[in-house]
Amino acid sequence: MSGTNKRQLSKSFAEGDGDGPAVILIEPQMGENIGAVARAMLNCGLTDLRIVNPRDGWPNEKAVSASAGATLVLDQARVFDNTRDAITDLHRVFSTAAIVRGMVKPVVTPREAANEMRGHWSAGRKVGLMFGPERTGLVNEDIALTDTLISVPLNPGFSSLNLAQAVLLIAYEWWISGQDVEDRYFHASAGQPASKGDLHNLFDHLEGELEEAGFFSSEDKRPSMVRNIRNMLQRTALTEQEARTFHGIITALAGRKKRRKPDHGGE
Amino acid sequence: MSGTNKRQLSKSFAEGDGDGPAVILIEPQMGENIGAVARAMLNCGLTDLRIVNPRDGWPNEKAVSASAGATLVLDQARVFDNTRDAITDLHRVFSTAAIVRGMVKPVVTPREAANEMRGHWSAGRKVGLMFGPERTGLVNEDIALTDTLISVPLNPGFSSLNLAQAVLLIAYEWWISGQDVEDRYFHASAGQPASKGDLHNLFDHLEGELEEAGFFSSEDKRPSMVRNIRNMLQRTALTEQEARTFHGIITALAGRKKRRKPDHGGE
């Protein structure tokens, strides 16, 4: 499922988007999940993966096969034997965790976390995203080492994400917060938009043929019928090529009708 | 990885968030992916799953096991044998597809798609999200049946998502666009924030002990030293309980110091 388009091709690691928060996985269990995390990271331009006590050791073949080619991330992943060593060089650590009774922490949405991480990042501070083991999540000792909790406000009736999905959503917000992309644009590689002149020729052609075909039943309804047709065609925002095609359609239909006339509709 | 917190518990299907865009999977290949899609959908409150010609038939055991309990979605999923039948009742269809040369379509980001879908939805129009087969993506014939392309602006050097991840990112934007959640709040289930009075008592206690300990080397530096200490404590936004703890810390340290004095620092 490719999400690339030419608008983004200018954006690249060269601009530093390839850098960004470190992702710290605490005691991840399945290699497949580590690989899927690496894929999600690289999707969002993150490359600094740190793994604390991976259950099945490191390197891990299953991680490689699940990474869908994000080996760049796996190859430079670093393994640590405790959380403190894994985050020593960082200035701010965010972690996803269920809210824990008795823990006093600021809690932010992924979008707010992305904004705050951008702020730290552009001020030259290194930030990290910490994720706990698949089943159990972060232990309180590790939560106590983090600055801010990230709470993903999903369907409260079914909010559990797998590890790679949690990484993807937060890394996605980080990546998007650094993008400058048009929310909406018109893709018309098929050619130039039709000029107003092209469009008006089309109006004339269609309305002339409709006239001849007796389409305009009553003279007083005619102006509004014409307006409606023009609004409809206007809205389609035709390209030059599409306008030519439309001329052809009109000619074909009108021609067929005309041919039919002499032999009383026989064909 | 739970993203639920009490702030969201008020949000529920009752408010209609459980409804929303239909997700249409065209010729999905692996049951695991269909199950992961169902999970991502329910994470984001979507329940209307439509499947066109699933390769391995339907129902699919692997889909159930991969759905992590999102059977609500799988149980009511509908299977169709062509795309047109699957979208007949919808008013607007968005689809994720690589930009195709020669196709004339508006292209939007997932966030913009969510906004536009909300607009249609609140106007009573039914919308759908269409996704193609894992490897090949949507064929041009299906793209031609959709109104708007969604392009996920990920790392242009590594932008390919798996099916469930693509569904998750777009469903996530839909869900978030309907949420009204504080971007940042302070979680202090441990108790009430300390009042200014509590804080000022702490200032007095600490500064008094520091006075006695000869901490304020020079009188002219003293005011700024006091300000810095107060700013530091202010910033920690203590709870009542934490303020009491801090009083205890001061007393313990100062007491130890005092005990130490007579025997010349020996212990």
Summarize this structure as a short list of keywords or feature phrases.
8 strands, 13% strand, disordered N terminus, 2 domains, 267 residues, homodimer
Describe the SSE topology:
The structure is a homodimer of 267-residue chains.
Chain A: E1 22-26, H1 31-43, E2 49-52, H2 61-66, H3 71-75, E3 78-80, H4 83-87, E4 92-96, E5 104-108, H5 110-122, E6 127-131, H6 140-143, E7 148-150, H7 163-177, E8 184-188, H8 196-212, H9 222-235, H10 240-260
Parallel strand pairs in A: 1-2, 1-6, 2-3, 4-6, 4-7, 5-7
* Biggest interface found: A-B, 75 and 74 residues
Largest sheet of chain A: 7 strands, parallel
Low-confidence stretches of chain A: 1-18, 263-267
- Taken together, the total number of domains of chain A comes to 2
Helix content of chain A: 40-55%
The coarse silhouette of chain A is: elongated
Number of helices of chain A: 10
| C-alpha termini separation of chain A | 48 Å
Main-sheet strand order of chain A equals 3-2-1-6-4-7-5
Say what oligomer this is.
Answer: homodimer
**What's the CATH class label of the largest domain in chain A?**
Alpha Beta
Overall mean pLDDT of chain A: 86
